[in-house]
């Protein structure tokens, strides 16, 4: 696909990803400066925006090594940023969460699992669930959460969890609809994945949900489809 546009695959893919991520980071930095009191909003801009890169990777079918390399580099930057303020919109120094690091790891795990099998949509599904589901859950919960609950000492809201469930169901339905069409399995699997992902997101101590939600969502969707579709 990239070759048909007259560009070598590698440089075309790299320029697309780099350009998109630069836009995401610039948007997050703008949000961080414009709404200094709401640092979490800037983090979620990065969280949602960077996750959508997986759609480009799926569309152009990036080589596995490119995604794994990006995962390693991003994970290393995340770990360094806990000690050195590289981008305040991504991590604050001393922040008690490994969420950004786990996010990078989950991308690498899903790529290593599904990319060699040419089942790109499962990896994309897992990352998009994490990007949109968790991102919207945090923003809705923070700004509109009026009914709190607590798990493992982590404060959550029913409004945020509902946003997580709805976003996950929509994302999963869209991905499966594109791949397998309007089958009953598409809608049933999406509902089951939404419930599971919302449950996993509720247990988010130290940002572990950035690992369990994408991998758990993709794995559950994969195994259910293997069971029902063969």
Supply database-style keywords:
about 230 residues, disordered N terminus, globular, mainly alpha, 2 strands
Description:
The chain has 230 residues and is mainly alpha-helical. It has one domain. 73% of the residues lie in helices and 3% in strands. The chain contains nine helices and two strands. Strands 1-2 form a two-stranded antiparallel ribbon. A hairpin with a 2-residue loop joins strand 1 and strand 2. Helix 1 packs antiparallel against helix 3, helix 4 packs antiparallel against helix 5 and helix 6 runs antiparallel to helix 7. It starts with 8 loop residues before the first helix and ends with a helix.
Brief synopsis:
The chain contains 9 helices and 2 strands; from the N terminus they run ααααααββααα. It has 230 residues and is mainly alpha-helical.
The quaternary state of the protein chains shown equals: single chain
The biggest sheet, with number of strands, parallel, antiparallel or mixed sense and barrel status, is: 2 strands, antiparallel
What would you call the shape? globular
As a percent range, the share of helical residues equals: over 70%
**Rg for CA atoms:** 17 Å
Number of domains: 1
Extract low-pLDDT stretches. 1-7
Distance N to C terminus? 30 Å
Structural class: mainly alpha
| Strand/helix succession | HHHHHHEEHHH
Strand order of the largest sheet: 1-2
Quantity of strands, as a count? 2
Helical stretch count?
A: 9
Average of the residue pLDDT scores: 81
The percent range for strand residues is: under 5%
């Amino acid at each position: 696909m990239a070759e048909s546009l007259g560009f070598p695959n590698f440089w075309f893919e790299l320029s697309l990803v780099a350009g998109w991520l630069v836009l995401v980071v610039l948007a997050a930095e703008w949000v961080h400066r414009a709404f200094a009191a709401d640092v979490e909003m800037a983090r979620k801009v990065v969280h949602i925006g960077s996750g959508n890169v997986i759609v480009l990777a799926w569309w152009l079918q990036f080589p596995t090594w490119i995604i794994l390399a990006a995962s390693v580099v991003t994970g290393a930057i995340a770990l360094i940023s806990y000690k050195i303020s590289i981008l305040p919109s991504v991590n604050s120094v001393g922040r008690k969460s490994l969420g950004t690091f786990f996010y990078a790891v989950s991308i690498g795990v899903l790529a290593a699992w599904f990319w060699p099998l040419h089942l790109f949509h499962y990896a994309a599904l897992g990352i998009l669930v994490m990007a949109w589901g968790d991102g919207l859950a945090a923003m809705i919960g923070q700004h509109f959460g009026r009914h709190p609950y607590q798990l493992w000492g982590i404060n959550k809201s029913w409004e945020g969890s509902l946003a997580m469930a709805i976003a996950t169901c929509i994302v999963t339905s869209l991905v499966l609809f594109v791949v397998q069409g309007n089958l009953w399995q598409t809608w049933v699997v999406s509902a089951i994945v939404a419930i599971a992902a919302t449950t996993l997101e509720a247990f988010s101590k130290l940002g572990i949900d950035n690992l369990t939600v994408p991998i758990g969502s993709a794995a559950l969707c994969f195994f259910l489809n293997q069971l029902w579709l063969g």
